[in-house]
Sequence to fold (1316 residues):
Amino acid sequence: MRRDGLRTALATVCLSGTLEDKLTAAADAGFDGVEIFEPDLVAAPLSPGDVRVRCADLGLSIDLYQPFRDLDSTDPDRFAANLRRAERKFDVMAELGADTVLVCSSVSPDAVTDDDRLAEQLATLADGAARRGVRIAYEALAWGAHVNTYEHSWDVVARADHPALGLCLDSFHILSRGSDPAPIADIPGEKLFFLQLADAPHLSMDVLQWSRHHRLFPGQGAFDLPAFLRPVLAAGYAGPLSLEVFNDVFRQADPVPTAVDARRSLLALAEATARAEAATAGAVAEAPADGAAAAEAPADGAAVAGAVGAGRRAAPATVAIDPVNAPAPPLAGHAFVEITAEPHAAGQVGAALSALGFVRTGRHRTKPVERWEQGRARVLVNARGNDGAALGALAVESADPPAAARRAQRLLAPLLPRERGPAEADLAAVAAPDGTPLFFCRTGAGGPGGWSTDFVPTREAPRAGIGITGIDHVGLSEPFDHFDEAALFYRSVLGLTPVSAGEFAAPFGLVRGRALTDEARTVRVALTVARLRRGDWAPAVADPQYVAFATDDVLAAARAARDAGAPLLAIPDNYYDDLGARLELPPERLAAYRDLGVLHTVDHPDGGVYLQVGTELLGGRLFLLLVQRVDGYDGYGWADAPVRMAAHRRNRLVRTTL
Amino acid sequence: MRRDGLRTALATVCLSGTLEDKLTAAADAGFDGVEIFEPDLVAAPLSPGDVRVRCADLGLSIDLYQPFRDLDSTDPDRFAANLRRAERKFDVMAELGADTVLVCSSVSPDAVTDDDRLAEQLATLADGAARRGVRIAYEALAWGAHVNTYEHSWDVVARADHPALGLCLDSFHILSRGSDPAPIADIPGEKLFFLQLADAPHLSMDVLQWSRHHRLFPGQGAFDLPAFLRPVLAAGYAGPLSLEVFNDVFRQADPVPTAVDARRSLLALAEATARAEAATAGAVAEAPADGAAAAEAPADGAAVAGAVGAGRRAAPATVAIDPVNAPAPPLAGHAFVEITAEPHAAGQVGAALSALGFVRTGRHRTKPVERWEQGRARVLVNARGNDGAALGALAVESADPPAAARRAQRLLAPLLPRERGPAEADLAAVAAPDGTPLFFCRTGAGGPGGWSTDFVPTREAPRAGIGITGIDHVGLSEPFDHFDEAALFYRSVLGLTPVSAGEFAAPFGLVRGRALTDEARTVRVALTVARLRRGDWAPAVADPQYVAFATDDVLAAARAARDAGAPLLAIPDNYYDDLGARLELPPERLAAYRDLGVLHTVDHPDGGVYLQVGTELLGGRLFLLLVQRVDGYDGYGWADAPVRMAAHRRNRLVRTTL
Fold:
């Protein structure tokens, strides 16, 4: 951004690799600055002066040096030694050109517990810092021995009342303790020296372990970060929005996409905060003028026009949002899914679609792609794949495809170059984190987003179908390193809401699932990932993708499909014996389930029943699913996914040589 | 075992795969029986009758069907429905031929909290079970809504006083709560229907999550399982020793080695329990006769001769140990390590050894293997490798090599076939879990374990060396799926004790470490593993192996090595600036460290200092290390391992094209 709004920064500890790897990745992703995590510098061959030059070359400022631990001490000799240690770090900072250092509250048994004495020790440190042109940002660790809340850290900083001493606020330390962030708005903005942002899932574990291993980028976890950011901005904070995320997966993943994911999280957070701000704007008397001005500015960043440098509470801080980055245009369902398959597998997929009641309604003008339709379900089968069958592309119905694509790019989704003939529709596609193209469409329309005109009608006879009404959802198995990234991508780029998160024990290891949908439930995406990577021994079948078709009568649909020769997946009798023991279903219903291979799942906290019938695997790791949602069921049937996965494994053992 | 001692069993939930995969793996590892975990059966295409036949074919008994959840209810209709559900499960058990079912204490909000009423409901269930020839083993889950201690479960079972109702004891549920297992000895043995064993690391987290994801096989975690098992056997428990281990890694790893690891854990536990028993035997008046008899029996299993079928407390149960499975013969250091390298890398290794003051003292009679020596450090360089350089074999000095090898085989270590010439020594080697050969030797001796005679002396001139006195330890980077297995292997087969466990944030992700040693610290093995698997982007250099040589003066040794041209690893200046700030070392000492690349580590809770100087990587992923332990330092310098890893990464970037 590096524009009028707040700046974005990234702590080097967020990324994997050496310091050199990290700086390059942060710069490439567009960050304005970095926090230098001390262990990264200590292990680097670059001198602090070299790092300063490297950062300058990359256009990165060094916004924070961190962390300095266990400053205060009840032992005067220890405290004196700690001050000498700090002086050495001020030397390093001078070479780096960094003017703010993070000092954590002590976790040591000799931590000072008298607040006046603590304030005095911090002021002594701040004196030394001021002589070197350095500022101390004091942070309460959630597990600090004495100081472990932001209120307490603010009390100590206020007592010390030293111009070179201020606060560092970290959303994890504050929200993990359940502290209310609202009173932050009452802290003078000029005493907020630094802001570190991190999200996290709700976990019932030791807070230190939770912090060190499970932090996430904003929007990937369970914390309400807009509600945290608003009082910070309202207080007049004018420093960077900086990410400090300790995460085991990110720590071992390619830093380049992780840095993009990180920056996307801040862009999305800025937008969400602005929207929350806007929603309450009517209630804020002073806001409109500034907000409106910012909204009209031609800025092309996801600008967070905070009250930069404003005096305390002169006006409530406003997070402005520029017009291009307005909310995602409304969605109206899945436009189509494309299945890419090598020719033989494409034949298998076509035969299965036909048996499921689909009609081949069109052939692409220039490519080996067929269009199949039933109800509002549309499937393109692209015979240009070269390895089995896979989901080749997703497409959503958007109220404004060009705006949606621009917004996606603003959220750092790469625009995909498309090869198209002169008469073909100009469809904008961006790449999801796993590389899958995502199209923004307006089915049936001409102009941007119109795609149907690329197909020559086949004039095949219309059929009644088997009762499929549309695409219920797509099931994507994500690469291990990109699961949280994918969830944030669909959340931010499509404006979806995470609705389900879960974990289940599948035959080849634990699988984590997360699903996202729009408010009207017209677009649903279900993501899964193996919690650990697959062992060498686990078959590829452990990670299938699928397309789920909606029906209002899964029994009738499955029966019709089977009669037409659909390769329905056989489910073991044991499952039905257990189902009968658990639920005491009417015998004829249970018999019909058993006959057709229907899974009957009741795993959603809000109730309802999920009925699903799958096909065998087509081309190795793709299957089709018929689903019926009964009584408002809003989940994805994960409780029965292990049964389906075992059946697919058997299916594959029978049909192929593994 | 299926001999006179207690039998061994494995819950299918311990392993990855389908039910068919699991049964085969359990049988291959030599288990006598299995617990059938219900979700495994539900997802299986085999009918319960088929499973019965399959198990019989494999020589497995079905010792338990599990689990039946949430039986009791304050709602009479619900309780009636639960009884009907149980009847369906009794049907399944009849087909399976299983006579014991595990019933967990309820976690439901409608759990009965009146103990008399609860006992009554359990007795009602037991009535139904008795009619079907089934026994109910009631278990207190550590997170049960009302019943969550074994004492409470026993109280309820005693109140019910029903012959078909007894207890299931699970070491995890009992030890995770910190309960004292000793009073178990007072429970009548005939009421202990089943015993489930699991170990676990100490973790500060929700007990349900701890249980579901982090259990380990006995000997891999932190629980004192011999102290748990002894009162159970003393009570007269005569059922199988059965493992129920929910572990995320095992759940996705090849079930065949995991099952071997599992059975090894029971053999080692039986031995450890017997040893604990023997240690206190003098204090037990009735024991000697039985114990001595068992010790002379020619049993070839790691026999646990419990008081099988004995009436309650007729005599204290004795865990007998047969002579072959006596404690590991004492160790007296590393005999040698073998480095296997392709010819060019072997040259690099030889040059480095020479610069480190080693003398090439011998050449193998028939193989391209050279022997290098200095002090008691012996290194074989085998030029028959085909990919860089790696640790090819470990060898320990054993007081009785043949006994040690027999013992290793009894602990399921595969004996390695060896190709050897007619005049060559007959050295017994077994394979560690990662395939590395492990030799039992008697250096300098003839006969079994004598290996020196295989080498023709070179008659190269003796040299003073650089002060290396021996091998301090070997550093092994383990495959992700086999880390806990490797730790248990070295612990049980070599009789080592785990002394250090830790985790550190390395440049390419978190690394977990565990070290094992004998009491006298003559043999040390340090194991590391990447906590998550490496991303595609992390370099091979992230997982190096090494040999650490001991010296009493690392500065002198490093200086001499450098003067001789050893490729010492350069450590960044930043490290020394930080070290100076942290420790205020004398300037000349710091300067010497900086000059030579010495890492100075003070991370062990018992104190002391670890000084280490590494070489660059030799042949890609192996390096040599000089270490000096000051003031009794007993760790492995993990706090500075990330600095070394970053330096190796740089070293490799400079020297090769990645």
